[in-house]
Amino acid sequence: MGANGAGKSTLVKILSGSISADAGTILLNGQSVSFASPGEAQAAGVATVHQATDQAGAAGLTVAENLTLNELCGTGSFFVSPRSTRKRAAEIAALIDLDLPLDRDFIDLRPAERQLIAIARAVAAKASVLILDEPTSSLSSTEAERLFSVLRRLKASGIAILYISHRTGDLAAIADRAVVLRGGKAVASFAKPIDFSAAVAAMIGRTLDAALHDGTVSSAPILASVKRARLIPGATPFDLDLRSGEVVAITGTLGSGKSRLLRALFGLETLAEGEFTLDGKPWLSNGPARSIENGVFMVAEDRWASSLLPPEIPGASIAGTIALPHLPRWFPLGLLRETRERLVASDAIHRLGIKARGPDDTLDQLSGGNQQKVVLARWQAAPCRLLLLDEPFQGVDVGARADLIAAIRNSQSGSATLIATSDTEEALEVADRILVMRDHSLYEADGSHESLAAVIGSVESIETRADGTGQTP
Amino acid sequence: MTDQATASSKPASTFAETARKYALFVLLAVMLVGFWSAQPAFINSANLFSILQAVSVVAILGVGVSITMSAGGFDLSVGSVAASSVMAASYAMVVLQMNAFETLGLVLLMGAFIGLVNGLLIVRVGVPDLLATLSTMFLLAGLQLIPTGGRSITAGMMLPNGTTAAGAYDPAFLILGRGRLFDTVPYPVVVMAVVAILAWFLMERTRWGRVFYAIGGNETAAHLAGAPTKAYRLWAYVLSGTLASLGGLIVASRVGRGDVSAGNSLLLDAVAASLIGFAVLDKRRPHVLGTVLGAIFVGVLLNGLTMLNAPYYTQDFVKGVVLVGALALTFGLGKKKR
After folding, report:
1. What confidence tens digit (pLDDT) does each residue in B311-328 have?
2. Closest residue on chain A to B70 (Cα)
3. Alpha-carbon gap, residue B330 to B317, rounded angstroms
4. Do B226 and A293 touch (CB under 8 A)?
């Protein structure tokens, strides 16, 4: 484990042969080895499943072809028949009990399924060491559970697994031993049973107070509300009131409709039925421009895809990133004044504790948590009515998450915040009130783990059933 | 995202970085000095202005290309727009007997209209940028031949319907291509400078330029930040089309007739100028200053080599070498720094 910037990924890259170590040796089965390329590491039995699952296989090829990809590319016979490919693929899939339809295209698979393919390939290549880099960062809890059961089987079969994560829940589920990295050094090591509060403290270099907020119901005026809404035709309609100063979290599995609700409020999608009100007036946005003008801001999930700019273009600095949506209001005449942008950015850097050299740093120089702080700062740079955050803690370490939560909670006067997250722990930490989304409808839950688990649990049984029927050929 | 380690330990700009940043300036200076010592006539002001005059059209078209590139597009039709503008200007004056100002207005409007068509094909119909502008390129290359039956336009020419064209080039129009400001600076150079300064200001100093680049960098992010991305992309093509027709007007006023083969190499030269510009100041993106400098760079090199009696057929080869070198400088050598 380790916070962002601790050196976890660097370690993975060294072990998998992408970069070479500055000093020190790698011992494999007692022998010193050095890998000049990822291929050599793989040949030696060190397999790596990277965080970006779209690289786990080749789009356009079927599941069967992807499972046998190593053989297709390397040592297999010159001629391949679809029949032999399928037969071999079925054998490989059986190694980890993978029950995917073999003729499905890789591009149609969900991240969890892609990951399992990568693992199956690693096992088929007779790997003795399996490295997983943040494997659960884009999985729902059902999918994570399935991954864990696969990993337990592999463990039982004698494969050593290096599991990189900053989710304590994952480690509690599968780890025998935990090593904490900070600043490129191994600072602590824990044997089972792992003392997670000590581990987290070692990870961020300080202790965290559990930020569970009391469940007192706010009596502030209602700021925004959703009435008799159906997100998709046929879903159960629901109501939602957001009060001034309130932070409300919506949790639930992937695909349950959390993002869709946020996108509908922001004007990117339309409701099948129902209506929104904002400050007592009907609210219907036709797109981001109108929403932003009216103080409805959204931070979409996956910050590199939805918010950030590549480093070589102007405006990719911290200052420019924060200013982007506010340009028309800050500079009505069109002429940029960079001092104004820098001032806002410097303020944000101090206020949110962003680790950067200054407002002119580009975002690729920052760690994930600091990138997310910049994205949050963007939307705190203007008066806000309703702030919509979709998975705001994705790829953010525990320390930065605490800073983000403090920043979200401290700027609450007069606006409401709606957060979508599939992680119940995050929801409990940040929100005044938690709702569960299930099959595109909202359900109440009181603020305890048990209650949430019960409400989400019923979701998962439905999901598993749906998956089961969907996958029988 | 995983660890992007060493966020705060980037060293101050090294010698290599500085060298890469100013490489093209240094090379330009070296070239000037080299050609001067080999051929003293090279450095006199008449020759230098003739170089600038020769590159002005390419630079103006290149500015249009780099604006569309910065917005994530690519305008392949600039060469054809310029060539059609030559024909349209000639046709307007020689056949329709318009005066210089009517011709200027008509041709610029035509360029803007073609840009609008490009833009609508791309943002409304959804045709990919390269394909849309490739098809308008072909369309215009053919269309410009139709009114005159494939012949060049000169005063007193025979029209397809058997009559003789009554008009002629307006002498006022020819000033644009042949006149000089204060008897020294050719007007095409003045136009290039004005276009370059205005476009530079737009792209680097206003919020509109910022949004153009944001759209090119990440269109989703720009859209979610409230930018009307489709309108911006449309405008990029309108600007590019207008600039291309301006370039065509300069060509027409220099040659003084509607030559069907005018503008043959303009597209590739303009694109090359934009791409060479990526290396200027190590920006790794299209930008106006770089484009103009890229055009001048190629112009100086070709002029110098011609003075040293290099055969004309080596010109494309030389351009290719410069382009390959500049792109390698931009993308290859600098990659490790990020």
Report:
1. 888 888 888 888 888 888
2. A313
3. 20
4. yes
Q: Confidence band (pLDDT; 50, 70, 90) for B200?
A: very high
C-beta separation of A307 from B221 below 8 A: yes
Residues 209-248 of B with CB under 8 A from A: 209-211, 213-214, 216-218, 220-228
Structure token pair of residue B306: 């011609």
**CA–CA separation, A310 and A317 (whole Å):** 10
pLDDT at position A394 is: 82
User: If you count residue pairs, one on A and one on B, with CB atoms under 8 Å apart, how many are there?
Assistant: 131
- What is the full DSSP assignment across A395-413? T--HHHHHHHHHHHHHT-T
Domain-located, residue B10: no
Q: What stretch of H or E contains A114?
A: helix A111-124
Shortest CA distance to A390 belongs to which of A415, A372, A402, A411? A372
Tell me A236's DSSP state. Answer: P
Look at residue B25 and tell me if it is in a domain.
no
Q: Which domain holds residue B311?
A: 42-337
The pLDDT value recorded for residue A208 is 46
3-state secondary structure chain B: CCCCCCCCCCCCCCHHHHHHHHHHHHHHHHHHHHHHHHCHHHHCHHHHHHHHHHHHHHHHHHHHHHHHHHCCCCCCCHHHHHHHHHHHHHHHHHHCCCCHHHHHHHHHHHHHHHHHHHHHHHHHHCCCHHHHHHHHHHHHHHHCCCCCCCCCECCCCECCCCCECCCCCCHHHHHHHHCEECCCEEHHHHHHHHHHHHHHHHHHHEHHHHHHHHHHHCHHHHHHCCCCHHHHHHHHHHHHHHHHHHHHHHHHHHHCCECCCCCCCHHHHHHHHHHHHCCHHHCCCCCHHHHHHHHHHHHHHHHHHHHCCCCHHHHHHHHHHHHHHHHHHHHHHCHHHC
Query: What CATH code would you report for A8-204?
Result: 3.40.50.300
**What's the number of domains chain B is made of?**
1
Question: Cα torsion for B136, B137, B142, B147, to the nearest 10°?
Answer: 70
Residue B24 resides in a domain: no
| Cα B114-B120-B124 angle, rounded to 5 deg | 170
A155-183 pLDDT, tens digit per residue, is 888 888 888 876 677 777 788 888 888 77
Cβ(B305)–Cβ(B323) below 8 Å: no
List chain A domain ranges.
Answer: 8-204, 222-471
Query: β-strand A386-390 against A416-420: which pairing, if any?
Result: parallel
Least CB-CB distance to A335: which of B10, B205, B284?
A: B205
Tell me the CATH number at B289.
1.10.3470
Would you give the DSSP letter of residue A98? Answer: -
Asked if A312 and B283 come within 8 Å (Cβ–Cβ), the reply is yes
| C-beta atoms surrounding A173 within 10 Å | 17
Q: A8-204 and A222-471: same fold?
A: yes
Rounded to two decimals, what is the model's pTM?
0.78
CA distance B215 to B236: 11
Q: Which of B3, B223, B227 is facing A4, going by the closest CB pair?
A: B3
State the smallest CA–CA distance between residue A358 and chain B in angstroms.
10
The phi and psi torsions of A178 (rounded to 5 degrees) equal: -130, 135
B283 reaches A (C-beta below 8 A)? yes
Query: Do the domain assignments include residue B7?
Result: no
Question: What is the rounded CA–CA span in Å between residue A456 and residue A447?
Answer: 13
Question: Is residue A193 reached through a cis peptide bond, with omega within 30 degrees of 0 on the bond before it?
Answer: yes
Query: How many whole angstroms separate alpha carbon B324 and alpha carbon A328?
Result: 39
Which ipTM score applies to this complex? 0.82
Query: Once rounded to an integer, what is the mean pLDDT over residues A181-191?
Result: 81
Per-residue tokens: B201: 């200001």
Domain A222-471 CATH assignment equals 3.40.50.300 = yes
